[in-house]
Design goal:
With 197 residues, the protein is an alpha/beta fold. The chain has a single domain, classed as Vaccinia Virus protein VP39 (Rossmann fold, 3-Layer(aba) Sandwich). The chain has six helices and seven strands; from the N terminus they run H-H-E-H-E-H-E-E-H-E-H-E-E. Strand 2, helix 4 and strand 3 form a beta-alpha-beta unit. Helix 5 packs across helix 6. The longest helix is centred in the last third of the chain and has 14 residues. The radius of gyration is 15 Å and the shape is globular. The chain starts with 9 loop residues before the first helix and ends with a strand. The model has no long low-confidence stretch (mean pLDDT 96).
C-alpha cells in the first residue's frame, strides 16, 4: 500500500463525512465502544481541570470526557462532524468545540496549559514533520504532572503513518519530557498514557 507523504488535508475529512456522517462507526461499532471504555478507565485521575481533545469527530468520546473535565476544548479539522458533536454536547457546561487544523492552528488556550491532552486515532494522519510539531506543542501545553493519552488503530490503513509508527514518532519527539504511565496493546489498537515530567 502506497502511503501519502503529507498530512491529510481537511478536505479529505470533509469529503469522508459528506459520504457518511459516521464513517468510522463511532456510534455503532463494538470496537469503538470498548476502546472508549478502556480509554476512560486508563485515565490516571478521576477529574481534570482543563483538557484538550484533538480530533473529536462527532463527539462520542467528547461526551464521555466532558463528564471528567471541568473545561474541555475539543478540535476537529472538518466542520461537518462538528455539527453532530455540537448537537450531542448541546448544553454541556465547560465544553468548547472548534474547527482547527493542528499543528498550525494549535489553540491559544495552550498558553495557560492543559492537565490532559487526548490524541485518539489522529496521529497517523500527520506527516513525520507535522507529527514532531504536534508532539512538541503537546509537551509545551501540558502542565507539569499533566497526562497525554494516545490511542491508535494498528492494522494497515492508507494514512501517512501506521499506528505504531505514529505513536513511536510522537514518543521520540517528546523525549524525556513525557514518561510512560501505562502501555496497553490490544489486537486492533494500542493505548499509551504519558505524564509530563
Amino acid at each position: 500500500m502506497k502511503r501519502p507523504s503529507e498530512s491529510l488535508p481537511a478536505s479529505y475529512f470533509e469529503e469522508l463525512y459528506g459520504r457518511d456522517p459516521d464513517p468510522w462507526g463511532f456510534e455503532r461499532w463494538d470496537y469503538e465502544r470498548d476502546k472508549y471504555a478502556a480509554t476512560l478507565a486508563a485515565l490516571p485521575r478521576e477529574r481534570y481541570g482543563s483538557a484538550l481533545e484533538v480530533g473529536c469527530s462527532i463527539g462520542v468520546l467528547t461526551l464521555a470526557l466532558s463528564a471528567r473535565c471541568d473545561r474541555l476544548l475539543s478540535l476537529d479539522a472538518a466542520e461537518a462532524p462538528l455539527a453532530a458533536a455540537r448537537a450531542r454536547l448541546d448544553g454541556r457546561p465547560g465544553v468548547t468545540l472548534r474547527r482547527a487544523r493542528v499543528p498550525e492552528e494549535w489553540p491559544a488556550e495552550a498558553a495557560d496549559g492543559f492537565d490532559l491532552i487526548v490524541l485518539s486515532e489522529v496521529l497517523y494522519y500527520f506527516s513525520r514533520d507535522d507529527l514532531a510539531d504536534v508532539a512538541a506543542r503537546a509537551v509545551a501545553s501540558l502542565r507539569p504532572g499533566g497526562d497525554a493519552v494516545l490511542v491508535h488503530w494498528l492494522p494497515e490503513a492508507p494514512y501517512p503513518l501506521g499506528g505504531d509508527e505514529a505513536v513511536e514518532g510522537f514518543l521520540d519527539a517528546a523525549g524525556a519530557a513525557l514518561r510512560p504511565v501505562l502501555a496497553r496493546r490490544e489486537p486492533l489498537y494500542r493505548l499509551d498514557v504519558l505524564r509530563r515530567a
